[in-house]
Amino acid sequence: LPSYTVTVATGSQWFAGTDDYIYLSLVGSAGCSEKHLLDKPFYNDSSVDSYNVIVDDELGDIQLIRIEKRKYWFHDDWYLKYITLKTPCGNYIEFPCYRWISGESEIVLRDGRAKLACDDQIHILKQHRRKELETRQKQYRWMEWTPGFPLSIDAKCHKDLPRDIQFDSEKGVDFVLNYSKAMENLFINRFMHMFQSSWSNFADFEKIFVRISNTISEQVMNHWQEDLMFGYQFLNGCNPVLIQRCTKLPVNLPVTTEMVECSLERQLTLEQEVELGNIFVVDFKLLDGIDVNKTDPCTLQFLAAPICLLYKNLANKIVPIAIQLNQVPGDENPIFLPSDAKYDWLLAKIWVRSSDFHIHQTITHLLRTHLVSEVFGIAMYRQLPAVHPISRYSKLLPYLRGTQPRLTALSPLLLKANATGGGGHVQLVQKSMQDLTYSSLCFPEAIKARAIRAFTAEVVDIYYGSDQVVEEDQELQDFVRDVYVYGNAHGSALGFPKSIKTKEKLSEYLTVVIFTASAQHAAVNFGQYDWCSWIPNAPPTMRAPPPTVKGVVTIEQIVDMLPDRGRSCWHLGAVWALSQFQDNELFLGMYPEEHFIETPVKEAMALFRKNLDTIVSVIAERNKNKKLPYYYLSPDRIPNSVAI
């Protein structure tokens, strides 16, 4: 009788094994086998077990494997990595799974060859493809969490998410442990509940700072008051996306050449410097009108909406030359200048840094990486079956994991330590949606993510022989349209495509998806401890309103405005935890899950990794002996996604 050898691999995650009954049946072109109980009583984490399956009749070419899980004592989830089948002829067929099987359920696996819908000519494969999408669309439903937000998955809490996109147990624990470790290592538990208790002076902040040695954060602590460090952060800090070249002086910033002439080094007027491209602006108008945090009646908190003018000097450095702390000019909204009294100018810069922190956390980090990646991820699950090449190669599978758990873990920060907590952060997202255009997610042509784009183009070439194949791939078009229609209520106005008709545009689209969830997130997330741990450089809240006159502020008043001891500790613990890699982190180009079996794709992945290794070497060489190295975009420090 025909005999098949079935090898079953269980995942290495916590609790990946199961004690439930597991049944397997083979579906071939000439028939279907009976159900076979895989009779080893326990499946241990990381185990690889083999079984002989004897069938009564020839099955022909094996097309599907059906797995059923039935309760033993209680429901025990099982993470199945893959199944390898050795046929009676000695051929091996790989059936990748890499998903959880929960409750009493059944899953059907196809072999590891990625296929477009047009490649499936056999009825049973077409039917499997259709049923998988029908099931997914019931599991992954769009929901409007709050008006004006990108749509999200229909889940009120983490446990409501489909099992395959829930945060891995160890990752959730890692975040909590990192937060607790920060409390312990920084020796700040004793300050955690000291709300309303001000620090004595700037040096007093070192009590919660110096316990962890970090080159960049120590440089920030030592030089944060300097204009050069202030300007440097707009280019190389954790929020390097706000600065813009000034082509015309803002109408609501009535600054003149006479006011800033001591900062201009080329003996030109301010207008002439603008024409030469030497003036830059950072406008925090999104913060204008945002409600402040009122969750603690014992502490008043305040926001500003500054406009900051910067200058590229003869040393090719960016330095601030004028700061107005609110949007409407007037006698009670002075323009602060480097020529002002020391503490007037310092306080104005602190307000800008605090404003930058709010925009960074809520817009640059949360909205433009986590929430956007969630939209792409839900649409992928809903419209692309597991066998689709884009579903397999793009590694969107883990992109949803982590957003919701981390937001839950961060709620104390938002409510207690952040001036936009308690509702202001929601208003910020709603206001900034008008700027969330598709083109703003496309990396600029001159500094394009070339390694990622080359990889996407190569994979697209493997599976799409022509632009016509792209246009006729209905599953792909449904994926793109889901993002356009449901993922963003403003899709038509924001330039998101509702269809893709060429290989080039498909490659661009996939580059946007991957870059946003990997490199972009790394650039704005993992430097948070570096740049935000020294509290005066990135205050999460201010406890007095912006000054309305010059010449009266004292250093004691500045210290009293900064976050109290309790809020400082909440803030420091959060930025430390967010900046840590997980113990089992997977970085860009690391794909341990064998979703593909085709040689051309494996070769493309190997070339991608080689190109990334070259970039790592170039960046490492560039950073040698630098006091302020920039390594956030080094591929060996870019996790595969926002969640891993």
TrEMBL record:
User: Where located?
Assistant: Cytoplasm, Cytosol; Membrane
Write out the pathway annotation from the protein's UniProt entry.
Lipid metabolism
Task: Supply the Pfam families for this chain.
Answer: Lipoxygenase, PLAT
Q: Does the keyword Signal apply?
A: no
| Transmembrane intervals | none
Q: Where does Ca(2+) 2 bind?
A: D39
Give the binding site residues for Fe cation: H365, H370, H521, I644
UniProt entry keywords in alphabetical sequence? Calcium, Cytoplasm, Dioxygenase, Iron, Lipid metabolism, Membrane, Metal-binding, Oxidoreductase
Molecular-function GO terms, alphabetical: arachidonate 12(S)-lipoxygenase activity; arachidonate 5-lipoxygenase activity; iron ion binding
Q: Where is the Lipoxygenase domain?
A: 115-644
Naming one, the record's GO cellular component terms include: nuclear matrix
Q: Which SMART domains match?
A: LH2 (SM00308)
Q: Which residues form the PLAT domain?
A: 2-115
> What reactions does this protein catalyze?
(4Z,7Z,10Z,13Z,16Z,19Z)-docosahexaenoate + O2 = (14S)-hydroperoxy-(4Z,7Z,10Z,12E,16Z,19Z)-docosahexaenoate
Identify the residues that bind Ca(2+) 1: G17, D76, D77
Tell me the Gene Ontology biological-process terms attached to this UniProt entry.
dendritic cell migration; glucose homeostasis; humoral immune response; leukocyte chemotaxis involved in inflammatory response; leukotriene A4 biosynthetic process; leukotriene production involved in inflammatory response; lipid oxidation; lipoxin biosynthetic process
Recite the UniProt cofactor note for this protein. Answer: Binds 1 Fe cation per subunit.
The coenzyme or cofactor needed here is: Fe cation
Record has Oxidoreductase as a keyword:
yes
Sites annotated Essential for stabilizing binding to COTL1: W100
Task: Spell out the InterPro entries in the cross-references.
Answer: LipOase, LipOase_C, LipOase_C_sf, LipOase_Fe_BS, LipOase_mml, PLAT/LH2_dom, PLAT/LH2_dom_sf, PLAT_LOX_verte
Q: SUPFAM superfamilies given for it? A: Lipase/lipooxygenase domain (PLAT/LH2 domain) (SSF49723), Lipoxigenase (SSF48484)
Q: Which family does it belong to?
A: Belongs to the lipoxygenase family.
Q: What is this protein called?
A: Arachidonate 5-lipoxygenase
- Give the organism, scientific name: Balaenoptera musculus
Upper lineage ranks? Eukaryota, Metazoa, Chordata, Craniata, Vertebrata
Write the gene name: ALOX5
